[in-house]
Write the structure tokens for this entry.
Amino acid sequence: MTTEKPWGGRFTASTDKLVEEFTASIGFDRRLYREDVRGSIAHCRMLAACGIIKPEESERLVAGLQAVEREIEAGKFPFSVPLEDIHMNIEARLGELVGTELAGRLHTARSRNDQVALDIRLYLKRELPEVRRRLRELILAFVVQAEEHVDTVMPGFTHLQQAQPVLLAHHLLAYVEMFDRDWQRLRDLEKRLDQSPLGSGALAGTSFAIDRRQVADELGFAGLTANSMDAVSDRDGVLETLFAAALIMVHLSRFCEELVLWSSTQFNFVSLADSFCTGSSIMPQKKNPDVPELVRGKCGRVVGSLVSLLVTMKALPLAYNKDMQEDKEPLFDALDTVTGSLAVMAPMVATMTFNREVLAAQAEEGFATATEIADYLVRRGLPFRQAHEIVGRLVAHCLERGRRFRDLPLAEWQEFSPLFDDEVLGLLAAADAVDSKDVYGGTARARVRAQLERVKKKWQSGSGS
Ligand code: ARG
């Protein structure tokens, strides 16, 4: 295969080997081969339709491009580092298949700058719905668990300290809200990606009378980029994808952290299926939550990818700069990581089992109903701050004596406030505290059931996806 560069004319010396290797992107941008071939076919058909090349030339080019694609798919394509990137690898091979004279016409009215911008947009248009599909799977796994646990009371935490009792379903549905936003965020950025940049040329547009709309229609783009300089130098779609991916990982990492804590002997809230855990090579009793730990760990590389490309793009003058070739590795790595993480999380979430008894017992600990009692005093006419003070003193009183609220006889309550009567003794169960949070978005059973129904309607019908 020839390694002659297509720009040879201007040069008297060949590229230094080190430079060739340093500047090449073929090692990673070969992933864009399908998009590159599709874009070239659409471009070439349009050139023929506009009378810029002959119809029979277009047909031979299209057949050649399809043959190249088949070679790549069959693993028989001779990738070449001196040919730098996927665009030139494909064009050079096309030249071997259909003749360099004809292959040389394909790049009429096009630059690698609008070509690569197109490839990336096509790639994201294909991959992002796949990420959304996996988010949906994960959401459905959370929904199944939430459904199991609309009656499971657990301690809710702030500062990782016992705060107020909540339903486990409520806790799980909080994650559904996060992943729902992640899903919408992807869908939203897909709309902005949906413009064809082809026709922007190197930066200024093209002097050929091309039909940008035809290419966009053939490739399924809703619109056209409006400014050629922006179109070839914009990587916002990649950055937005990286941000969306980073935030998905941040959300996953928060749940993973809870799983790591909750599956410990100390918490004992949950056990992960054996098939999602690993053992220790030395300690026979160990069952390690490797999957959540690793997902939590992988959050770092995706956030790193986002920061890496933000810094690459910062202060780049218009229009295209070679720096921008650094967009691909972070993008591919982030998409692989987020896809892989979502894929393993969904079945893990579906198969974990919660320890209802421990959760329920723990919900009664730690004076979790203290706010309930303060609210009770407020309903009897006390300003909230005073009620807070009184209940605070009650907690201290119990702590000193190693007792819980429910160990106190009414007379002892009344030492702290004459407003206490029998009714307070009925406020001490965590389940009642849960049901008292009867506000839209609150943790009362009826509210959580309604929340679950809304979520099920949205995701189980497939309408959300
Ligand atoms: N491999 C290049 C990239 O990914 C393609 C565009 C190259 N354009 C150029 N003028 N060197 O950015």
Observations:
- The beta strands are 153-158, 161-167, 195-196, 223-224, 270-271, 353-354.
- DSSP finds 19 helices and six strands in the chain.
- The longest helix spans residues 112-148.
- Residues 25, 29, 85, 112-113, 116, 320, 322, 324-325 surround arginine (CB under 6 Å).
